[in-house]
Design brief:
This protein has 289 residues and is α+β, with helices and mostly antiparallel strands. The chain has 6 helices and 5 strands, in the order βββββαααααα. 10% of the residues are buried. It is found in: Postsynaptic cell membrane.
Amino acid sequence: MTRNKNETVSFQLIITAKMECEMDLRKYPMDEQSCPFILESYGYTTEDMTYEWREGEKSISGLKDIRLSQFTIYDYKALQGYGDYETGRYPQLQMLLLFRRQVFFFFLQTYIPACLLVVVSWVSFFINPDSEPARVSLSVTTVLTMTTLVSGTRAQLPKISYIKAIDVYLVVCFVFVFAALLEYAAVNYQSRYYKTPRKSRKSKKAEIEEFQLEEKKAPLAVPENDGSSPPAARNGTARRRFPSPKVLTSFRGGRKIIEDVNDIDKFCRVLFPSTFAVFNAIYWIVYAV
């Protein structure tokens, strides 16, 4: 405390404090935080004294030299106010710091690996459905890796009850990876379901062809005209009995069903990437803009 020549008193005080700031993490890690730092009188009310910034916001300096691991200070405000209590109204000086989280670290650690895992899961759509070990191992590996990534990311975050932006992205990525596994399960089930009927239809076609061959080799017997024979028999001709075209149609239909199994993969090759691209567009517009 010093006394100046103009009969004013200057009081200087150095305070070192560790402060906490309550944060809203709903947009984490694209969040921006507002942290107030308040200096308040303890024993004097506004009737005794008032606090003012001498030069307004210019009174605060040195913030540009501060380097934080996850945040950047992009703005600040110098405010003054008061706090109301039962014992009276006490003067306050407020410094409001505005933080913006650095997202590049989370891109490298979380977003890019999750996106790559989703893309890798689509490789199974280009593998032959008959290659069961390759498709199953690829799908299961991506699901387990995605589970590890989600668990590791959540372990580094505070335990809060509401959903964060990074939770939405990781859950959707996990759904895409797991859906790729379910897609192969559906393809494999359909392929096995129609595998046995296809063999039976092949045997039916072979029997039909054999029957037709025997019909061609066998001589035609013309019955006597006793009045009960059909007109074709009375004219010296006879009709060969051919199998119903429905049998052949069913066989062709069986081949068409087997081809549809590959069509599922072809459809998913377009559906999954396009849906994931739409999700990313909506996600970054909602949380980053």
